[in-house]
């Protein structure tokens, strides 16, 4: 557990927090005028290795060598020069700060585009950035150069094992109701594919393209096919699949020796991808033998649903209906459009994978940046 303190005066700025991995949907911008929930679970924080907010430089002002030194291997439209290593927390966990009036933001709320907008109440040092604008996940980003974290107590909790995580079975459904900001007609809701799933798919698709080596890929049928196959077929050469991807993880049968790609869960606390027994760690996957399967990371709650979808079960009736009678409610409605992975998350991930320097992958990226594949994302 840690408490974050102001670097200027030492005032405590948060409740005690435990570290977890950064959600893949951290940078997602979803829809227009939608209300996204809080990004981080209360009582947790995650460290973001990438900067957020201004000042910005356009892609033409960035030397390729400088970009690669910052872990970016393909041209980008713009790059921020703000500090890295911010700690991201839930807004309800911040303490002892005030809003900087001249950085109130535009439109529906705070977007953090102008840098820190929260100051320490005790010394007025800008310490954090509150984000709650429409279409953005709500969060507070504690600046790494003005906020320090210190241990809070001596208690140490061991991360849950993969078996324990699988037994908990916490899954994220692929559909959910999306809330919109109130307008002339008031607030509204619509049924949609889950933003979490769209961001997770964008992150995984970047890895799937790298794992494909430019060859057709076949993913498992069912929901996994709905999420990945249409986009893979459009971006990769036509023809029979030459590389095969399967779902793998704790409690699942060992993958066949001939499998090329494994869709695996990521530990929600450590951020490490699950790997088959005897396999090298995910961080060293690049050094594996050519015959080893490529590990494509997915959030645990998404991977668990793909492996074992939650069936629709009738619920026991209540009220005047006899208790042994099951309700006959209609199935939840399906979205009226095909699944689309999140474009921003896909591009953010792909340009940070060294393999994007291959000409065939660079061509795919340039095509997407020109907006000619809007039907896929």
Description:
- With about 375 residues, the protein is α+β, with helices and mostly antiparallel strands.
- The chain contains seven helices and 18 strands.
- Strands 2-4-7-11-10-9-8 form a seven-stranded mixed beta sheet, with no helix packed on it. Strands 15-16-17-18 form a four-stranded parallel beta sheet.
- β15, α4 and β16 form a beta-alpha-beta unit.
- The longest helix is centred in the middle third of the chain and has 18 residues.
- The two termini are about 40 Å apart.
- About 30% of the residues are buried.
| Rg calculated over all Cα atoms | 22 Å
| Tally of DSSP β-strands | 18
Q: Look at the helices and sheets and give the structural class.
A: alpha+beta
Strand content: 15-25%
Shape: globular
Provide the succession of SSEs: EEEEEHEEEEEEEHEEHEHEEEHHH
* Percentage of residues assigned to helices: 10-25%
Secondary structure elements and their pairing?
Blueprint: E1 2-6, E2 18-19, E3 34-35, E4 44-48, E5 56-58, H1 64-69, E6 78-80, E7 86-89, E8 97-99, E9 118-120, E10 126-131, E11 139-142, E12 147-151, H2 162-168, E13 175-183, E14 186-193, H3 195-212, E15 217-218, H4 223-235, E16 243-247, E17 261-266, E18 294-299, H5 300-307, H6 343-350, H7 359-369
Parallel strand pairs: 2-4, 15-16, 16-17, 17-18
Antiparallel strand pairs: 1-12, 3-13, 4-7, 5-6, 7-11, 8-9, 9-10, 10-11, 13-14
Helix pairs in contact: 3-4, 3-6
């Amino acid at each position: 557990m840690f408490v974050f303190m102001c670097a200027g005066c030492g005032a405590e700025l948060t409740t005690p927090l435990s570290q977890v991995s950064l959600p893949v949907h951290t940078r997602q911008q979803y829809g227009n005028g939608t209300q996204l929930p809080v990004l981080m679970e209360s009582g947790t924080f995650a460290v973001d290795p990438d900067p957020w907010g201004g000042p910005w430089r356009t892609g033409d002002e960035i030397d390729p060598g400088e970009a690669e030194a910052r872990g970016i291997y393909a041209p980008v439209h713009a790059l921020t020069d703000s500090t890295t290593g911010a700690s991201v927390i839930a807004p309800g966990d911040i303490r002892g700060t005030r809003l900087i009036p001249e950085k109130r933001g535009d439109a529906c709320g705070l977007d953090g585009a102008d840098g820190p907008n929260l100051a320490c109440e005790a010394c007025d040092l800008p310490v954090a950035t509150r984000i709650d604008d429409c279409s953005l996940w709500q969060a507070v980003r504690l600046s790494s150069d003005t906020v320090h974290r210190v241990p809070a107590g001596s208690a140490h909790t061991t991360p849950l094992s993969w078996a324990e995580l699988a037994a908990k079975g916490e899954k994220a459904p692929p559909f959910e109701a999306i809330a919109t900001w109130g307008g002339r007609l008031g607030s509204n809701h619509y049924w949609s594919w889950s933003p979490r799933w769209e961001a997770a798919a964008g992150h995984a698709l970047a890895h799937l393209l790298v794992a494909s080596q430019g060859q057709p890929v076949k993913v498992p049928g069912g929901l996994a096919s709905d999420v990945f196959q249409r986009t893979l077929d459009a971006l990769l050469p036509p023809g029979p699949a030459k590389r095969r991807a399967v779902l793998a993880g704790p409690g699942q049968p060992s993958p066949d020796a001939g499998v090329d790609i494994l869709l695996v869960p990521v530990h929600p606390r450590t951020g490490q991808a699950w790997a088959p027994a005897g396999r090298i760690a995910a961080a060293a996957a690049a050094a594996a033998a050519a015959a080893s399967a490529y590990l494509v990371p997915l959030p645990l709650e998404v991977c668990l649903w793909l492996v074992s979808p939650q069936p629709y079960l009738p619920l026991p009736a209540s009220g005047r209906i006899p208790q042994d009678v099951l309700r006959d409610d209609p199935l939840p409605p399906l979205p009226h459009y095909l699944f689309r992975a999140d474009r921003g998350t896909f591009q953010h991930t792909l340009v940070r994978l060294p393999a994007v320097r291959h000409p065939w992958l660079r061509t795919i990226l340039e095509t997407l940046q020109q907006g000619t594949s809007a039907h896929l994302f």
